[in-house]
Amino acid sequence: MTDYNTILVERDGRTATITINRPKALNALNSEVMTEVVTVAEELDRDSGIGAIVITGSAKAFAAGADIKEMSDKTFSEVHNQNLFAGWDRLAKVRTPVIAAVAGYALGGGCELAMLCDFIIAADTAKFGQPEITLGVIPGMGGSQRLTRAVGKAKAMDLVLTGRMMDAEEAERSGIVARVVPAAELLQVVKEVAGTIAGMSLPVAMMAKEAVNAAFETPLAEGLRLERRSFHAAFATDDQKEGMAAFLGKRPATFSNS
Ligand code: CO8
């Protein structure tokens, strides 16, 4: 794969890992990180040889937020007219499952990037927060919306209005983190989880992801209809035939992603 300035990309079988790599800035998310992460994620999404994508950072920081140096002198018309950070929305449109593996700081845009992934597995060293208010701004990439849907109004207000950090245990208890694991095991666990997902039928995993995401965007009746229609549609795949035949034949399924 191509060389990048701010990320590392590694493929292992049907999984791919994007590692944000700006250690001197604690992986602060500047425009180049956004362009590289989103471009690679979209490339991987078009590649049917990839069934799961992991986004991670370093042991010290998943990402300590949007790059404050890059933003500090910008004017309203610059950030408004450039639609600053809107490019991250493209990551939310990726259909392949995306897991965030978070160790260390996931602050501001870093917390928002992690929440934009399908789910978060955190090291016990992880710290989440939306400290934008301490800089005189508010969250700009979902911190007031995805966080509130995940943790509820009371804790979202607490975090967004005080800018305090929460540790991995509080984040899991609050519902933004799926699992917490010892820091030394984070990448191994996440790669195993990604491998499990990548071993499923890709079109069916995409249907499952779309159905869960619909719960955030549609009224219940509409979400239930989408779920049922996607369930019916799964019967048009070879993988439904294989999955059920394998169960009945008491053997592991081998999906063809078709
Ligand atoms: N932007 C730019 N540089 C950063 C950032 C950042 N967000 N965070 C850390 N750095 C840099 C520091 O400036 C420092 O650089 P230098 O060595 O050149 O002075 C280096 O990283 C190391 O940082 P520290 O010395 O501060 O390290 P500490 O271990 O003492 O502290 C902290 C770690 C607590 C994480 C601290 O660095 C910190 O508070 N960082 C800022 C956190 C923050 O406020 N983040 C929110 C940013 S605003 C935002 O994210 C808006 C989101 C809008 C949408 C974005 C979508 C992507």
TrEMBL record:
Keyword Transcription regulation on entry: no
InterPro entries per UniProt: ClpP/crotonase-like_dom_sf, Enoyl-CoA_hyd/isom_CS, Enoyl-CoA_hydra/iso, Enoyl-CoA_hydra_C
GO molecular function: enoyl-CoA hydratase activity
Biological role stated in the UniProt entry: Could possibly oxidize fatty acids using specific components.
Catalysed transformations (reactions): a 4-saturated-(3S)-3-hydroxyacyl-CoA = a (3E)-enoyl-CoA + H2O; a (3S)-3-hydroxyacyl-CoA = a (2E)-enoyl-CoA + H2O
EC number of the protein: 4.2.1.17
Provenance organism: Flexivirga endophytica
Pfam families: ECH_1
Record lineage: Bacteria, Bacillati, Actinomycetota, Actinomycetes, Micrococcales
EC class name: lyase
Gene3D superfamilies tied to this protein: 2-enoyl-CoA Hydratase, Chain A, domain 1, Lyase 2-enoyl-coa Hydratase, Chain A, domain 2
GO biological process: fatty acid beta-oxidation
Keywords: Fatty acid metabolism, Lipid metabolism, Lyase
Family stated for the protein in its record: Belongs to the enoyl-CoA hydratase/isomerase family.
Protein name: Probable enoyl-CoA hydratase echA8
